[in-house]
Amino acid sequence: MTGTGAPRQLVIYHTADIHGRLGFGARLGALVQPASLLVDVGDSLSGSSTVFRASEPVIADLRQAPYRAQAVGNREFHYLHRKFLQRARMLPAPLVCSNLIDLRARTEVFRRELMVEVQGLQVRVLGLLVPQYRTGSGWEKVFGWRFLSADAALEDMHARSAHDCDATILLSHMGLRADTAIAQRWPMLTAIIGGHSHDVLRQPEVVDGIPIVQAGPHAQYVGRLALNVNARAAAGWDYELIPLLAGEALERKAAGA
To answer: Going edge to edge, which strands form the sheet with 67-71?
Structure first.
């Protein structure tokens, strides 16, 4: 575990809001460096919380890259447990959502937190999904799902906080405005990797020392965040957006020039 000595580097690649776009998988798989962490921040699929598609061709692309975790987005979530579970079993990486509770103790679909090891660093991965209805809503009895606010979920996860992690990374499918507010209130976070609002950030937005990044939608880019981690905080970072499908568009444009 990182102490107060020299910072250690944690490299994270991230995508979000792919929305079923195809053709990025092989390129992404070739780009991701060994001993790094690749995550998706949700909405990789083309279905929705009410529409289920038995075939999701984008999963073949996802399987070509070494994803270690995927946040639950609107398009991974489904109100019906059996459909949600079917999606989770198709996806190549574990789903993470910290602000969703199954009130009926059914077969596990997602994890509220995920611990992964990257280059000897113990990384705690949390996830947030935009609540689909309020805590205590009558829909809880219908579907068996309880949505927590971001603050309620992070307070709960902070109370459970393990002291043996070197970094806490939040995969936030809440949108950039929500992410900036979260960073102001939760200094326990090392970095926020965001989605949902489809922002393309060329450099991190930094709030109270917490870098917030988004790579934009439709697999146009993958973000690469190299964090220097010390005492569970980001002591510095380098960031770049790397073209995926955007690169193909540029190549076609250059070829026609």
So the answer is: 95-96, 67-71, 37-40, 8-15, 221-230, 233-243
